[in-house]
Input
Amino acid sequence: MSVIQLAMIFFIVTNPIGNSPTIIALIKDYPLRKQQKILFRESIFAMILAIFFLFLGETFLGSLRIQNYALTFSGGILLFIVAIKMIFSVRTEEDAVKPKQDPYIVPIATPLLSGAGLMTMIMLYSKQEGNDLKILSAILLAWVGVTGVLVMAPYLQIFLGKRGLAALEQLMGMLLAMIAMEMLVKGTTLFITALQSV
Output
């Protein structure tokens, strides 16, 4: 899989467009410049968490002795659940619990951006590709898009409206569902191959 393909998967799983209404609701009481500063900062924090997990994930998987087919299959299931939520759920401002002060790492950087789905995908592709530099490049490329969307989120919400953002999220959810099904098929194939080799 190419760096661009991996970056697209990481971008879709991070779902900055779908998370925009919730994120904007958390910071809407701040001036626009302050909002953009917060969004940029939280995006950087989320990227650092993703990179940290990239290098920690391999050691974690090695200690648990998780087989490739198990990780691929479970990753497909998790990705499919995320996709279904993206397709059928609609986030509103009421979903956000406003913090009493400037949000710092939680809840924007994690779990809204660097959540369980992204961590699983990073672990999965790190093990499959066996090339941390490639995964790192994909994470950095994805975060260019994530940061761009977040910084422009206040304008996107005005320009596209809630329906437009929901439609984009549903479209990405459909793409994610197709990727999830491919992973489930691959995981099943790997499992059958492993059984035959026993």
